[in-house]
Specification:
With about 150 residues, the protein is of the alpha/beta class. It is rod-shaped and about 90 Å long. Helices cover about 35% and strands about 15% of the residues. The longest helix has 17 residues, at about 20-40. The strands form 2 sheets. Strands 4-3-2-5-6 form a 5-stranded mixed sheet, with helices on one face. Strands 1-7 form a two-stranded parallel sheet. The protein has 2 domains: about 5-40; about 50-140, Nucleotidyltransferase, domain 5 (2-Layer Sandwich).
C-alpha cells in the first residue's frame, strides 16, 4: 500500500504487525488431506466370498494369522495378504509363521465353494502343529433375508 504521509505520521496498529497465516493454513490443509488419503485400514487377506451364518458369531481376535482358502484365481492358499499357488510353499510358509509366533491366534477365511477336503487338510496340519483353536470367518446373515 502506498502511503503519502511522512514516516513520522504513519499510524501503526497491531493488525499491521501480525503475520499472514494463509501459507501456513495451506500447508496444514495439504498435510491433512495427505493423511486422510493414506490412512486406509484394512485387514490383510485375499478377497473371499465368505459363507454366512444366522447365529451371532463371537468376536474375532485382534490380530489373527489369517489363513485363506480360495478356489478361484492363481492363488488357492493365502497367509494374511500373501497368496500361494503351490500347496508345498503354502505349508512351509504357514509352518514358519506358526513357529515365529506360536501364541498368535489363527483365523480361517475360506471361500464358500472350497472343497471340504482342503479345509480338513488344513485343520489336520494346524492340529499337527499344536494349534487347538482356529476361528472361522463368516459374514453375518440377516434373519429376514431367507
Amino acid at each position: 500500500m502506498i502511503n503519502i504521509n511522512p514516516p513520522g505520521e504513519r499510524a501503526f496498529s497491531l493488525a499491521n504487525l501480525a503475520p499472514d497465516l494463509t501459507p501456513l493454513l495451506d500447508i496444514i490443509f495439504i498435510v491433512l488431506v495427505f493423511l486422510l488419503l493414506t490412512a486406509n485400514m484394512r485387514l490383510p487377506s485375499l478377497p473371499m466370498d465368505l459363507p454366512a451364518s444366522e447365529h451371532a458369531a463371537s468376536s474375532m481376535p485382534t490380530d489373527p494369522l489369517t489363513v485363506s482358502l480360495s478356489n478361484r484365481g492363481p492363488d488357492l492358499w493365502g497367509i494374511n495378504d500373501r497368496g500361494y499357488s503351490n500347496q508345498v510353499d503354502f505349508e512351509q510358509a504357514l509352518l514358519a509363521a506358526l513357529v515365529a509366533e506360536p501364541a498368535r491366534p489363527v483365523a480361517l477365511a475360506s471361500d464358500r465353494n472350497v472343497p471340504v477336503q482342503r479345509m480338513l487338510d488344513l485343520f489336520a496340519l494346524l492340529q499337527k502343529q499344536g494349534v487347538e483353536v482356529a476361528e472361522i470367518a463368516l459374514h453375518p446373515r440377516a434373519a429376514d433375508a431367507r
